[in-house]
Design brief:
single chain, 280 residues
């Protein structure tokens, strides 16, 4: 049996060494290519938001040698970026010990402990990553809603993933601005019905928004996600946004057709992230 083949599609990327055992209430799920991610069966699970964030950031960063992932949770964004950028060093920060435990298991399973560094802490800490060199790419998949505005998840690990328990998208942008290397970029995801908050976060952190990619969950529906990428104002010429007519706004990507089938516009993103195209 060919471990790289799946319905006519060949899985890209390296084979992980594995050797890390599942424990009760955990699952081990495919992430990118052959890489896998440890998750709690009833806790926070990685989503398309995380995969899209890693894809967008690694696609639009000029040279991703050093990557930071803010509020990294179980590691889905950072690990996906590490898969796409095999020469990059990745540093992540996460406040929840229970999520960090899973992320460390995934890093060991996928064989990246030598270049994937997980820090326990708060992204709002001004001394975060003190002593580390700046980062070419900073990634973030922040919680979307203020605490108290949505029903809290039953599993305590999942609450901060959805609700703003430890910071908002504005905090993510401020942190990114402090960490970025010259010419680096900050990429994040946020719901389309809150685009104003995302744009304000970049602006208030003195980051120039260069590109926005809308992603619609289902053909004919309105709700979806915005992917954003921007750079420090000081790294770009005066008047650049106006002269270049930015931020760029390509056509939206659709995930599903109206009948539920995978939409063609997401197929190349899936391939780029080690997923089958899903069109068959």
């Amino acid at each position: 049996m060919n471990e790289r083949a799946f319905k006519g599609w060949t899985k890209p990327g390296p084979m992980p060494p594995g050797g890390v055992e599942l424990e009760p209430d955990e699952t081990l799920d495919f992430l990118c290519g052959h890489w896998r991610l440890f998750q709690y069966a009833k806790g926070h699970r990685f989503s398309v938001d995380d995969i899209l964030t890693a894809w967008f950031g690694t696609s639009w960063c000029p040279s991703a040698r050093r990557i930071a992932d803010l509020g990294s949770g179980i590691g889905s964004v950072g690990m996906s970026a590490a898969w796409r950028c095999p020469g990059a060093v990745v540093h992540t920060v996460e406040a929840q010990t229970i999520s960090i435990r899973l992320a460390r298991k995934s890093a060991a399973y996928n064989g990246v402990l030598d270049r994937y560094h997980i820090h326990e802490g708060d992204l709002r800490d001004p001394n975060l990553f003190q002593g580390e060199a700046p980062f070419d790419l900073v990634l973030g998949s922040p919680p979307y809603w203020p605490l108290g505005s949505r029903v809290e998840a039953e599993h305590p690990q999942a609450v901060p993933a959805r609700l703003e328990v430890r910071g908002t998208i504005a905090d993510y942008a401020q942190c990114a601005a402090r960490l970025l290397a010259p010419g680096g970029v900050f990429a994040c995801v946020f719901p389309l019905d809150q685009v104003d908050r995302a744009e304000a976060a970049y602006r208030d952190a003195d980051l120039l928004l260069l590109r926005r990619q809308d992603v619609i969950f289902k053909e004919g529906a309105d709700y979806g996600l915005g992917l954003f990428v921007g750079s420090r104002r000081q790294d770009l010429p005066d008047g650049f946004l106006t002269a270049a007519e930015l931020p760029a706004r390509p056509e939206p990507i659709l995930i599903r057709r109206a009948d539920g089938r995978v939409h063609p516009s997401i197929a190349l993103v899936r391939l780029a992230m080690g997923f089958p195209p899903g069109l068959a």
